[in-house]
Amino acid sequence: MTGEIRRASQRGYFDYGWLKTFHTFSFGEYHDPDKMGFRSLRVINENWLNPAVGFPVKIHQDMEIFSIILEGGVSHQDSLGNGSIMRAGHIQLMSAGRGLEHSEFNASDRDSAHFYQFWITPSQKKLKPSYQSKFLDPATRQNQWCLILSKDGREGSLQINQDVSVYLSNLSPGVELKMELEPNRYGWLQVMEGKIVWDGKELEDGDGAAISRSEMLQLKALKTSRIIFFDLD
Protein backbone atom coordinates (compact mmCIF):
# COMPACT_ATOMS: atom_id res chain seq x y z
CA MET A 1 0.00 0.00 0.00
CA THR A 2 1.21 3.50 -0.84
CA GLY A 3 -0.38 6.47 0.88
CA GLU A 4 0.28 10.09 1.79
CA ILE A 5 -1.48 11.75 4.71
CA ARG A 6 -2.62 15.37 4.49
CA ARG A 7 -3.09 16.54 8.07
CA ALA A 8 -5.83 19.01 8.98
CA SER A 9 -3.17 21.36 10.37
CA GLN A 10 -1.41 21.44 6.97
CA ARG A 11 -4.44 22.84 5.16
CA GLY A 12 -4.82 26.43 4.08
CA TYR A 13 -6.98 28.38 6.54
CA PHE A 14 -8.78 31.71 6.33
CA ASP A 15 -11.08 33.49 8.78
CA TYR A 16 -13.09 36.18 7.02
CA GLY A 17 -15.28 36.90 10.03
CA TRP A 18 -18.44 35.67 8.32
CA LEU A 19 -16.71 32.49 7.03
CA LYS A 20 -14.07 30.14 8.40
CA THR A 21 -12.67 27.86 5.72
CA PHE A 22 -10.00 25.17 5.39
CA HIS A 23 -8.54 24.19 1.99
CA THR A 24 -6.95 20.76 1.54
CA PHE A 25 -5.77 21.78 -1.94
CA SER A 26 -4.93 25.14 -3.53
CA PHE A 27 -8.02 27.35 -3.68
CA GLY A 28 -8.67 31.09 -3.79
CA GLU A 29 -6.03 32.94 -1.78
CA TYR A 30 -4.33 29.69 -0.76
CA HIS A 31 -1.79 28.41 -3.27
CA ASP A 32 0.62 25.51 -2.88
CA PRO A 33 2.05 24.27 -6.21
CA ASP A 34 2.51 20.83 -4.66
CA LYS A 35 -1.15 20.62 -3.59
CA MET A 36 -3.21 21.18 -6.72
CA GLY A 37 -5.53 18.23 -6.19
CA PHE A 38 -5.39 14.45 -6.48
CA ARG A 39 -6.32 12.79 -9.77
CA SER A 40 -9.68 14.37 -10.78
CA LEU A 41 -10.36 15.54 -7.20
CA ARG A 42 -9.49 19.24 -7.36
CA VAL A 43 -10.97 20.89 -4.24
CA ILE A 44 -11.78 19.84 -0.68
CA ASN A 45 -13.05 22.77 1.39
CA GLU A 46 -14.42 22.58 4.93
CA ASN A 47 -16.59 25.61 5.73
CA TRP A 48 -18.24 27.19 8.76
CA LEU A 49 -20.72 29.84 7.68
CA ASN A 50 -22.05 32.43 10.13
CA PRO A 51 -25.83 32.96 10.49
CA ALA A 52 -27.68 34.87 7.75
CA VAL A 53 -24.64 35.32 5.47
CA GLY A 54 -23.24 33.49 2.48
CA PHE A 55 -21.76 33.45 -1.00
CA PRO A 56 -23.39 35.83 -3.52
CA VAL A 57 -24.11 34.83 -7.10
CA LYS A 58 -21.06 33.48 -8.90
CA ILE A 59 -20.55 31.51 -12.08
CA HIS A 60 -18.67 28.23 -12.54
CA GLN A 61 -17.74 26.31 -15.67
CA ASP A 62 -16.52 22.78 -16.36
CA MET A 63 -16.56 21.56 -12.78
CA GLU A 64 -18.56 18.99 -10.81
CA ILE A 65 -19.28 20.57 -7.41
CA PHE A 66 -20.94 18.70 -4.58
CA SER A 67 -21.64 19.56 -0.97
CA ILE A 68 -22.36 17.58 2.17
CA ILE A 69 -24.11 19.39 5.03
CA LEU A 70 -22.89 18.32 8.47
CA GLU A 71 -24.71 20.85 10.66
CA GLY A 72 -27.27 23.58 10.06
CA GLY A 73 -28.82 24.51 6.73
CA VAL A 74 -27.61 26.07 3.47
CA SER A 75 -29.95 27.82 1.03
CA HIS A 76 -29.17 27.17 -2.65
CA GLN A 77 -30.35 29.18 -5.70
CA ASP A 78 -29.12 28.76 -9.28
CA SER A 79 -29.65 29.95 -12.85
CA LEU A 80 -31.48 26.72 -13.75
CA GLY A 81 -34.32 27.81 -11.46
CA ASN A 82 -33.50 25.48 -8.58
CA GLY A 83 -34.05 26.68 -5.05
CA SER A 84 -33.76 24.59 -1.92
CA ILE A 85 -32.55 24.47 1.66
CA MET A 86 -30.03 21.71 2.27
CA ARG A 87 -29.83 20.44 5.84
CA ALA A 88 -27.75 17.87 7.68
CA GLY A 89 -27.92 14.60 5.76
CA HIS A 90 -28.43 16.27 2.38
CA ILE A 91 -26.01 16.11 -0.53
CA GLN A 92 -26.16 18.23 -3.67
CA LEU A 93 -24.32 18.01 -6.98
CA MET A 94 -23.94 20.85 -9.46
CA SER A 95 -22.56 20.02 -12.90
CA ALA A 96 -21.46 23.47 -14.04
CA GLY A 97 -20.80 22.42 -17.64
CA ARG A 98 -20.75 25.38 -20.02
CA GLY A 99 -21.82 27.74 -17.23
CA LEU A 100 -23.96 27.77 -14.09
CA GLU A 101 -24.66 30.70 -11.76
CA HIS A 102 -25.52 29.98 -8.14
CA SER A 103 -25.54 31.41 -4.63
CA GLU A 104 -25.33 29.79 -1.20
CA PHE A 105 -26.41 31.32 2.11
CA ASN A 106 -26.81 30.12 5.66
CA ALA A 107 -30.53 29.41 5.98
CA SER A 108 -30.57 30.34 9.68
CA ASP A 109 -30.30 33.76 11.32
CA ARG A 110 -29.20 32.14 14.61
CA ASP A 111 -27.05 29.08 13.96
CA SER A 112 -23.88 28.59 11.92
CA ALA A 113 -23.70 26.01 9.13
CA HIS A 114 -20.90 23.45 8.80
CA PHE A 115 -20.40 21.75 5.45
CA TYR A 116 -17.85 20.23 3.10
CA GLN A 117 -17.60 21.13 -0.56
CA PHE A 118 -15.71 19.07 -3.14
CA TRP A 119 -14.84 19.92 -6.74
CA ILE A 120 -14.10 17.25 -9.36
CA THR A 121 -12.95 17.96 -12.91
CA PRO A 122 -15.37 16.42 -15.45
CA SER A 123 -14.37 13.98 -18.18
CA GLN A 124 -15.70 16.38 -20.85
CA LYS A 125 -15.98 20.15 -21.18
CA LYS A 126 -18.93 22.33 -22.20
CA LEU A 127 -21.56 19.87 -21.00
CA LYS A 128 -25.14 20.88 -20.29
CA PRO A 129 -25.42 22.28 -16.73
CA SER A 130 -27.49 20.28 -14.25
CA TYR A 131 -28.38 20.08 -10.56
CA GLN A 132 -29.19 17.07 -8.36
CA SER A 133 -29.85 16.71 -4.65
CA LYS A 134 -30.77 13.95 -2.26
CA PHE A 135 -31.48 13.32 1.41
CA LEU A 136 -29.66 10.29 2.78
CA ASP A 137 -31.40 8.13 5.35
CA PRO A 138 -28.84 7.81 8.19
CA ALA A 139 -29.46 4.05 8.32
CA THR A 140 -28.07 3.62 4.79
CA ARG A 141 -24.59 4.73 5.85
CA GLN A 142 -24.44 3.62 9.50
CA ASN A 143 -21.40 1.35 9.91
CA GLN A 144 -21.36 0.60 6.19
CA TRP A 145 -20.46 2.27 2.92
CA CYS A 146 -23.19 4.19 1.10
CA LEU A 147 -22.56 5.03 -2.56
CA ILE A 148 -23.57 8.67 -3.12
CA LEU A 149 -21.98 9.57 -6.49
CA SER A 150 -21.07 7.47 -9.54
CA LYS A 151 -20.64 7.89 -13.28
CA ASP A 152 -23.62 5.62 -14.02
CA GLY A 153 -25.97 6.57 -11.16
CA ARG A 154 -26.11 3.01 -9.86
CA GLU A 155 -27.70 2.08 -6.53
CA GLY A 156 -29.63 5.35 -6.48
CA SER A 157 -26.50 7.50 -6.41
CA LEU A 158 -26.27 10.93 -8.03
CA GLN A 159 -24.74 10.75 -11.50
CA ILE A 160 -21.45 12.62 -11.99
CA ASN A 161 -19.60 13.38 -15.23
CA GLN A 162 -16.39 11.59 -14.27
CA ASP A 163 -15.15 8.04 -13.66
CA VAL A 164 -15.38 8.31 -9.88
CA SER A 165 -17.37 6.58 -7.15
CA VAL A 166 -17.89 8.36 -3.83
CA TYR A 167 -18.92 6.64 -0.60
CA LEU A 168 -20.04 7.92 2.81
CA SER A 169 -20.08 6.17 6.16
CA ASN A 170 -20.96 7.04 9.75
CA LEU A 171 -19.03 4.79 12.11
CA SER A 172 -19.59 3.81 15.73
CA PRO A 173 -16.53 3.34 17.98
CA GLY A 174 -14.79 0.02 17.36
CA VAL A 175 -16.41 -0.67 13.99
CA GLU A 176 -14.12 -1.90 11.22
CA LEU A 177 -14.75 -1.23 7.54
CA LYS A 178 -13.12 -2.39 4.31
CA MET A 179 -13.10 -1.18 0.71
CA GLU A 180 -11.55 -3.03 -2.23
CA LEU A 181 -9.66 -0.80 -4.64
CA GLU A 182 -9.30 -2.22 -8.16
CA PRO A 183 -5.91 -2.27 -9.93
CA ASN A 184 -4.94 1.07 -11.49
CA ARG A 185 -7.45 2.93 -9.32
CA TYR A 186 -6.67 5.54 -6.69
CA GLY A 187 -8.38 6.51 -3.46
CA TRP A 188 -8.81 9.56 -1.27
CA LEU A 189 -10.01 9.06 2.30
CA GLN A 190 -11.28 12.11 4.22
CA VAL A 191 -12.23 12.15 7.89
CA MET A 192 -14.92 14.82 8.17
CA GLU A 193 -15.46 14.19 11.88
CA GLY A 194 -14.15 11.70 14.42
CA LYS A 195 -11.04 9.54 14.66
CA ILE A 196 -10.05 6.35 12.84
CA VAL A 197 -7.05 4.09 12.31
CA TRP A 198 -5.98 3.42 8.72
CA ASP A 199 -2.82 1.52 7.75
CA GLY A 200 -1.61 1.74 11.35
CA LYS A 201 -1.97 5.53 11.38
CA GLU A 202 -4.51 7.63 13.24
CA LEU A 203 -6.60 10.09 11.24
CA GLU A 204 -8.98 12.57 12.85
CA ASP A 205 -11.10 15.66 12.13
CA GLY A 206 -10.03 17.18 8.81
CA ASP A 207 -7.26 14.68 8.01
CA GLY A 208 -7.13 13.12 4.55
CA ALA A 209 -5.07 10.46 2.79
CA ALA A 210 -4.14 9.85 -0.84
CA ILE A 211 -4.04 6.12 -1.57
CA SER A 212 -2.53 4.22 -4.49
CA ARG A 213 -1.47 0.66 -5.20
CA SER A 214 -3.75 -0.77 -2.54
CA GLU A 215 -5.95 -3.79 -3.09
CA MET A 216 -7.84 -3.47 0.18
CA LEU A 217 -8.53 -0.41 2.31
CA GLN A 218 -9.06 -1.32 5.97
CA LEU A 219 -9.94 1.08 8.75
CA LYS A 220 -11.31 1.13 12.29
CA ALA A 221 -13.20 3.85 14.13
CA LEU A 222 -11.70 4.93 17.46
CA LYS A 223 -14.71 7.15 18.17
CA THR A 224 -17.92 8.17 16.43
CA SER A 225 -16.80 9.24 12.94
CA ARG A 226 -18.06 10.54 9.61
CA ILE A 227 -15.87 9.66 6.64
CA ILE A 228 -15.95 9.93 2.86
CA PHE A 229 -14.01 7.84 0.33
CA PHE A 230 -13.29 8.62 -3.34
CA ASP A 231 -12.53 5.79 -5.79
CA LEU A 232 -10.74 7.64 -8.61
CA ASP A 233 -9.54 6.83 -12.11
Automatic annotation (TrEMBL):
<dbReference type="Pfam" id="PF17954">
    <property type="entry name" value="Pirin_C_2"/>
</dbReference>
<dbReference type="Pfam" id="PF02678">
    <property type="entry name" value="Pirin"/>
</dbReference>
<dbReference type="InterPro" id="IPR011051">
    <property type="entry name" value="RmlC_Cupin_sf"/>
</dbReference>
<dbReference type="InterPro" id="IPR012093">
    <property type="entry name" value="Pirin"/>
</dbReference>
<protein>
    <submittedName>
        <fullName>Pirin-like protein</fullName>
    </submittedName>
</protein>
<dbReference type="InterPro" id="IPR041602">
    <property type="entry name" value="Quercetinase_C"/>
</dbReference>
<comment type="similarity">
    <text>Belongs to the pirin family.</text>
</comment>
<dbReference type="InterPro" id="IPR003829">
    <property type="entry name" value="Pirin_N_dom"/>
</dbReference>
<feature type="domain" description="Quercetin 2,3-dioxygenase C-terminal cupin">
    <location>
        <begin position="147"/>
        <end position="232"/>
    </location>
</feature>
<feature type="domain" description="Pirin N-terminal">
    <location>
        <begin position="10"/>
        <end position="120"/>
    </location>
</feature>
<dbReference type="InterPro" id="IPR014710">
    <property type="entry name" value="RmlC-like_jellyroll"/>
</dbReference>
